[in-house]
């Protein structure tokens, strides 16, 4: 009996703790750690993500309908990983090309971390003026040759670069006449050409919320 009461009290304590942080309920089998918010009644509304039929998604800008699947969330490091958009079959165009690629609002608490190696495909020659690595042994070539999705990009200029603070941390830019497709790999080492073992994704980080009152 004592044990039962203890259990009840413990459960009650856990419940109170959770609701004081207003953490959102799970989405499918994924936790939605605070401050991430799947609806107006939980989390912090600045950290809006979407729970769609049991799967978490990230919308790059408040007014955009394009959704990127959330693959994992690390609440201790305030990081999450989203899936890069797919490259449309038999083309070299990312599915977010018409939106200009991936772009987060400047005022958003999310940014793109410096652990992403971004590969841009089907680039115009103008890109050679930039500090990107567009050499014929650049890692993007491995992707074009060995990943089916990249096949439509073969034999077109591609470039690889580590996303770092010298570039904007809020967008991966695409446009007709620039580069028309991209992918992103997390924690890629220079010279690592084992494409099957690459960890595809765009890693984002969020700024902790100002203390809730
Ligand atoms: C929702 O998810 C389930 C399981 O993954 C799937 O079978 C179903 O087709 C999905 N429904 C919609 C409307 O996407
Ligand atoms: C470009 O990338 C390749 C493959 O990772 C590397 O061997 C080469 O040194 C890089 N070139 C420059 C200019 O960074
Ligand atoms: C490559 O880019 C050009 C111009 O930017 C575009 O017209 C073309 O459709 C792209 N190629 C593929 C295979 O998507
Ligand atoms: C992203 O935001 C975090 C948290 O404010 C910050 O520490 C980090 O330097 C930012 N990263 C970039 C690449 O701007």
Brief descriptors of the model:
binds 2-acetamido-2-deoxy-beta-D-glucopyranose, 213 residues, 6-stranded antiparallel sheet, 3-stranded antiparallel sheet
Tell me what the structure shows.
The radius of gyration is 20 Å and the shape is elongated. It has 213 residues and is an alpha+beta fold. The chain starts with a helix and ends in a 7-residue tail after the last strand. The chain has two helices and 13 strands, in the order αβββββββββαββββ. The protein binds 2-acetamido-2-deoxy-beta-D-glucopyranose (4 copies).
**Outline:** elongated
Over all CA atoms, what is the radius of gyration?
20 Å
| Multimeric status of the protein | single chain
**What is the number of domains?**
1
Mean pLDDT: 87
Which small molecules are bound?
A: 2-acetamido-2-deoxy-beta-D-glucopyranose
The strand count comes to 13
For the sheet with most strands, the description reads: 6 strands, antiparallel
Structural class by secondary-structure content: alpha+beta
Instruction: Quickly count the helices.
Output: 2
**What is the share of helical residues?**
10-25%
The secondary-structure element order is HEEEEEEEEEHEEEE
Report, as a whole number of angstroms, the end-to-end distance.
39 Å
Contiguous low-pLDDT stretches (5 residues minimum) are 4-19
Percent of residues in β-strands? 25-35%
Task: Please give the order of strands in the largest beta sheet.
Answer: 3-4-5-6-13-8
